[in-house]
Design brief:
Its EC number is 2.7.1.30. Keywords: ATP-binding, Glycerol metabolism, Kinase, Nucleotide-binding, Transferase. GO terms for molecular function: ATP binding; glycerol kinase activity. By secondary structure, this protein is α+β, with helices and mostly antiparallel strands. The protein has a domain of 240 residues: Nucleotidyltransferase, domain 5 (2-Layer Sandwich). The protein has 17 helices and 23 strands. Strand 10 and strand 11 form a beta hairpin. Helix 10 packs across helix 15 and helix 13 packs across helix 14. The radius of gyration is 22 Å and the shape is globular. The mean pLDDT is 94. The structure holds adenosine-5'-diphosphate and SN-glycerol-3-phosphate.
C-alpha cells in the first residue's frame, strides 16, 4: 500500500519551515528558509509578505523534492503561523499594500495608550481576553489604513483584505479563492469576541475598521479547501490552521486542563490548557482560544514573553560574544553564577505580566569582575526568570499546582537553561523528543480532520516526552535569585504588577 503523509507549514518570526510527518508522527523530511527582518525605526519590526510567501513555497518544494514524496500522497496540509503579524492586501491584485507589521512592532503604542485610558479598555479585556497592547493586530490594521494613500476609502469600498499570516498563506495557496482564518488566530487580533465567537462590532467601530476587511473564522481542524492544483500539481486539502503557540500546545498533547507548555523560540510563550473554561486572569495573563475542534472551542491562559531566545541572538549578532546560539550553554557553565549580573531583555517593551510598552533592556550589577561568561549566563537566566514570572501567576490564577512544564523551541535545546528553569520554578521540565512540536501540532490538527488519525487518544500514544530535570536548589537560594531579578525588572519598567 502507498504510504500517505501530512505536511505542516511552520511560518515563524524568523523562518518559514515545511515538515512532512508519517503516521507514527515522525519527521520524514523538513526544509527551512530564513527571511529578512526589517527594522525601519527603533522598536518597529516589519516583514515583506511576498518574501514570507516565497520562502514558504520554497520550503514546501524543497521538502517534497528532498523526500521524493508525490503531492498526491499528502492527505492534509496544516498551518502554524507567527500570530498577530498583520498583512493588508488588495483583493483584486492580491498585492500587499504595506509590509507585514510584525507582532513585536511597537508603532501603535500611542493608540493603545488612548485605549488604556478610555472606557473601552475594560470592555476589550472582557470581550477579547487580551490586554490593550501594540502586540495585537487591531491597532496595526488602523495604522496601515492611516498610512497608505486612500487607505480608509479603499477599505470602505471593500477593495482591501486583512489577514494574519495563516490567512495570507491560505489566500496564496488557493490563488485567492479563500479568505479565512481559524479561531486561535482570530483571538489574537483584539477584534474578536471570544465569548460570542464573532468579530466585535463595538471594537471595530472604535477603530473604524470595516468588516469587509476581515476573514471568515473557521475551526482549527477542518478541511476548509484545497491548494490550487497549479502550485503542486495536486490539490492538497488544507485541513488544519492554528497560531503557532496554540499549535505547539496541541503538538505537546496538552489536551487536558491544567497542562502547560513553554516554547522557547524568539520569544517565550507559556500556555495552559483551560478546556471549556474561559479563565479571567487577575494578573494580566491573557485568555485566548486554544483551538476550535469537534464543533466547539477550547481556551488557554497565556503569558507572552517578547524576548526569549532572541536575547542570545543579540549576544551573538550585536555584541559578537558568541559564534552560535548553542555555544551559550558552554559559556554559562564556565562560571558558578552570574557574579551579580542581571539582564532584563526588554528590547521591545515587556509583555506578560508587566505589559510595559515603554520598558527598555538593561544590564545591572556590573562590577570590574564581570566577564562574558557572566553576561551569557545572565542572558540565559533572564529567559527562565521571565518564564517563571508567568508560571507563578498561572498557578495563582488557577489554583493549580503545576506538575510539569513541557518545553520545545530552539532554545529548549539548552540544558543549562532547562535546569535553571526547573530550579527556579520548582517543577520538572520535560523536553519533547520531536524538535518540531509546532509543526507537529499543525499536522495533528490537519490529520484529525483528514481522518489520518482517529482521535486525540491516538495522538497521545504518539507523543513522547523526555524527562530533563527536577528542581535542585534550596528555597532560600531561590528567593535570593528572585529578589535580584525583581530589583532588576523594576529598573527597566515604568509600571510593575
Ligand atoms: N542551544 C541554544 N541555546 C540558547 N538559545 C538557542 C539555542 N538554539 C537556538 N536558540 C535561540 O532560539 C531561537 C530560535 O528558535 P526557534 O524555535 O527556531 O524560533 P522562532 O520559531 O521564533 O523563529 C533563536 O533566538 C536562538 O537564539
Ligand atoms: O514565530 P515565533 O515562534 O517567534 O512565535 C511568535 C508568536 O506567535 C507571537 O505571538
Amino acid at each position: 500500500m502507498v504510504q500517505k503523509y501530512i505536511i505542516a507549514l511552520d511560518q515563524g518570526t524568523t523562518s518559514s519551515r515545511a515538515v512532512i510527518f508519517n503516521h507514527e508522527g515522525m519527521i520524514v523530511g523538513k526544509a527551512q528558509k530564513e527571511f529578512a527582518q526589517i527594522y525601519p525605526f527603533p522598536g518597529w519590526v516589519e516583514h515583506d509578505p511576498l518574501e514570507i510567501w516565497d520562502t514558504q513555497l520554497a520550503a514546501i518544494r524543497e521538502v517534497l523534492d528532498q523526500t521524493d514524496i508525490n503531492p498526491d500522497d499528502i492527505v492534509g496540509l496544516g498551518i502554524a503561523n507567527q500570530r498577530e503579524t498583520t498583512v493588508v492586501w488588495n483583493r483584486f491584485t492580491g498585492k500587499p499594500v504595506y509590509h507585514a507589521i510584525v507582532w513585536q512592532c511597537r508603532r501603535t503604542t500611542e493608540l493603545c495608550e488612548q485605549i488604556l485610558n478610555s472606557t473601552l479598555n475594560e470592555y476589550i479585556s472582557d470581550a477579547t481576553g487580551l490586554v490593550a497592547d501594540a502586540y495585537f493586530s487591531g491597532t496595526k490594521i488602523r495604522w496601515i489604513l492611516d498610512h497608505i494613500p486612500d487607505g480608509q476609502a479603499m477599505a470602505e469600498k471593500g477593495d482591501l483584505l486583512f489577514g494574519t499570516i495563516d490567512s495570507w498563506l491560505v489566500w496564496n495557496l488557493t490563488k485567492g479563492r479563500l479568505h479565512i482564518t481559524d479561531y486561535s488566530n482570530a483571538s489574537r487580533t483584539m477584534l474578536y469576541n471570544i465569548r460570542e465567537l464573532a468579530w466585535d462590532d463595538k471594537i471595530l467601530s472604535y477603530l473604524n475598521i470595516p468588516r469587509s476587511l476581515l476573514p471568515e473564522v473557521c475551526p482549527s481542524s477542518l478541511c476548509c479547501g484545497v491548494t490550487d492544483s497549479s502550485i503542486f500539481g495536486a490539490e492538497i486539502p488544507i485541513a488544519g490552521i492554528a497560531g503557532d503557540q496554540q499549535a505547539a500546545l496541541f503538538g505537546q498533547a496538552c489536551f487536558t486542563e491544567g497542562m502547560v507548555k513553554n516554547t522557547y523560540g524568539t520569544g517565550c510563550f507559556i500556555l495552559m490548557n483551560t478546556g471549556k473554561n474561559m479563565i479571567r486572569s487577575q494578573n494580566k495573563l491573557l485568555t485566548t482560544i486554544a483551538w476550535g475542534i469537534d464543533n466547539g472551542v477550547e481556551y488557554a491562559l497565556e503569558g507572552s514573553v517578547f524576548i526569549g531566545g532572541a536575547v542570545i541572538q543579540w549576544l551573538r549578532d550585536e555584541l559578537g560574544l558568541l559564534k552560535t546560539s548553542a555555544e551559550s550553554e558552554y559559556y554559562a557553565t564556565q562560571v558558578k553564577d552570574t557574579n551579580g549580573v542581571y539582564i532584563v531583555p526588554a528590547f521591545v517593551g515587556l509583555g506578560a505580566p508587566y505589559w510595559d510598552m515603554h520598558a527598555r533592556g538593561i544590564v545591572t550589577g556590573l562590577t570590574r569582575g564581570a566577564n562574558r561568561f557572566h553576561l551569557v549566563r545572565a542572558a540565559l537566566e533572564s529567559i527562565a526568570y521571565q518564564t517563571n514570572d508567568v508560571l507563578a501567576l498561572m498557578a495563582k490564577d488557577t489554583g493549580i499546582r503545576l506538575k510539569a512544564l513541557k518545553v520545545d523551541g530552539g532554545a529548549a535545546d539548552n540544558n543549562f537553561l532547562l535546569q535553571f528553569q526547573a530550579d527556579l520554578s520548582g517543577i520538572p521540565v520535560e523536553r519533547s523528543e520531536i524538535c518540531e512540536v509546532t509543526a507537529l501540532g499543525a499536522a495533528y490538527l490537519a490529520g484529525l480532520a483528514a481522518g489520518y488519525w482517529k482521535d486525540k487518544e491516538e495522538l497521545k500514544c504518539l507523543s513522547k516526552g523526555r524527562f530533563i530535570s527536577d528542581s535542585n536548589i534550596t528555597e532560600s537560594e531561590r528567593q535570593q535569585y528572585l529578589s535580584g531579578w525583581k530589583a532588576a525588572v523594576s529598573q527597566a519598567t515604568y509600571r510593575t504588577v
